[in-house]
Amino acid sequence: MNTIIINEKIIDDILSRSIAEILPSKESFKKELMSGRQLRLYIGADATGPALHIGHATNYILLEKIRKLGHKIILLIGDFTARIGDPTDKTAARIQLTREQVIKNTKTWIQQLSPIISFNDKDNPVEIVYNHDWLSKMSFEDVIDLASNFTVQRMLERDMFEKRLKEEKPIYVHEFFYPLMQGYDSVQLEVDAEICGNDQKFNALCGRTLLQKYKKKEKFVIITTLLENPITKDKMMSKSLGTGVFLDMTPIDMYGKIMAQPDENIYQLFIDCTFESLENIEKMQKDLELNLVNPKDLKMKLAFEITKIYHTGELAKKAEEYFINTFQNKDLPTDIQEFKTYKKSFDLVMLLLETSLSESKSEAKRVIEQNGIKIDGEIVNSNQEITITKKGFVLQKGKRNFVRVILK
Fold it and tell me: Can you tell me the distance from the alpha carbon of 95 to that of 102, in angstroms, rounded to the nearest whole number?
């Protein structure tokens, strides 16, 4: 039996950050953590894409902190549920994946999470499970029995289903099975608690109902905070908006993406995405409010701390130096990628495509129109023909993307 750490100060610190809500209550969950009994906690996730962002990592940081108290943690991979597709906050059915795609994504996830979860701890190992192992074996009779625990009215309580009904968009019957399957994961694992984001609250509560029904057991549902701009209420981590800080980014890109965050996001990013003490974070926030510190300096500390977690302190320092040289000192980076060509001329749109600075003609034209393209530091705002000499030039897109174009 693993030794359980009962330290009220440490437990209070864990329960004081990155948690929006605990059901049935935070007090009852703290009581369990103080009891000395080993708890079983899990995070379930459908590996629908290859990359995680620092918002996802918040949940796993919390899970690892609880593991270090001696409790059992489980990473559940929804290799079966991913093929059904949870609608989450979407207003349309999600594309179903193959099991092979999910397994491939899972391998990259474990690699990305290894800086924050001790997968190699032999004394209290992390358990990784796949819900295909039990959901694929259920008979139709089992599924009917599972479904009998819920009404259609309860399923329609999900916000996204209500929205689709109002907009007269289709709701597929198989989507109702998703919360049943996720709920059954809790039964199969006989867990004491589940950590999830607010978008999974409905599914987690279905699991609480099923665990009470089948095992006569209580389950805590721990809802983590959403990384959200306190002013605009936009999600901080959005791939579509280009604001996501993904765990598979290079140190330079990760550092730069964090520096691109608005100043008002600094406080929550320190709380949810770093290991800085709450005392230090509160002091930094107070200094910021009293104009005793430059927000840029705090953001550089934030960028360094986050980059250090996923890439080591040495690489974080190099990323910081790159940022200072490139953006503060107005110097070009020393390691600019080179594009060598035999062609002596391009129109600018095609050059952006050839150098991979743009993914499509429409995107290239848009960036040009927005004065986002420079050649040797000078803005080029029309799709003109570009002549390339042996000396070459530096082609720049936005603030951080450089390519040195050279004639072979």
Answer: 12
